[in-house]
Amino acid sequence: MLAMSFEHRGAWIQLAVTIGAYATYLTLLVRRADGAPLSATPYGDLIAWMIGGSIVVGVVLTIIIGMFGGERARRTDVRDRAINRLSDQVGASFIIIGAVAAMILAILEVEHFWIANAILVGFVASGILSSIARIVMHRTGVPSW
Known about the structure:
The chain has helices at 6-33, 44-73, 78-107, 112-140. It is mainly α.
């Protein structure tokens, strides 16, 4: 079995928590809409709970894996730092894409719901894709372009 470092396990946690939180948000939003247009559905509290809940769950799960991994498992090396840097760059690009999409929607005077969700999708895409990048680099190595 492939032994996973603390950072590698953290990437899996981030991926699972991000997907789970967004799926929960979408499920609750659609249920709350109950056939009405999504843009007419109150959503602010759902977004706030999704963000806050995912932070809490991510921190708790990271603490749990840290408790059972021992001190050695929590150490990071040059490779871990390079992986984190590159995967953060991948994630940052999707936050920017979400922000630009929100800006365009604001210029077009689209309803606030769509603007907020464009930003949210940027954050979710960032979390998912930076986690995937981190997982892939932990398994295949840091690219040497």
